[in-house]
Amino acid sequence: MMRQLLLSCLTGCAVALLVPSAGSADDLPVRKAGLWEMKMVKTGSALPEMAMQHCTDETTDKDMSNSVSPVAKQICSKREIRKTATGYVSDSVCSVAGTTVTSHAEITGDFNSAYTVKTSSHSEGGPIGTHDTTTTIEAKWLGACKEGQKPGDIVMPGGLKMNIKDAEKLKGLLPKSN
Prior knowledge:
There is one protein chain. This protein is α+β, with helices and mostly antiparallel strands. The chain contains two helices and nine strands. It has a nine-stranded antiparallel beta sheet, covered by helices on one side. The protein starts with a helix and ends in a 15-residue tail after the last strand.
């Protein structure tokens, strides 16, 4: 359960940032530097509502895009972001460990004080089989990072702390393809 929670939190962070791929039609703005609270609610999943805090700055947001991009290129056959009249829309098709996930996200907000990401996903294959989920992430800027925090620090449910820059070490948590 802890592994599933950790993966969900990391996925939430990535979805919350909706890391644009190189060459995408539009790029999302960089979030305002400081401490962001992200509340994630999923339907179609056994995971409870959760909240996490992420200390970030412009360099960290850009670094996350650059470090996630090579992995996404390996597992995603489609990653598109388009600017709309009310925000952005993202569509992707990604496969990990025999599971293919097709997602559509709508992003609204200003990335300075708050933003919302509403994602609907359809999964096929893998150990869970075919199912649909919706995820809503409401992010709001809380102010400066707390004393002792550095950009990239994430505080997850249960007080688990990590730095997103250590994500390379967490690749072993991803399920292996058969």
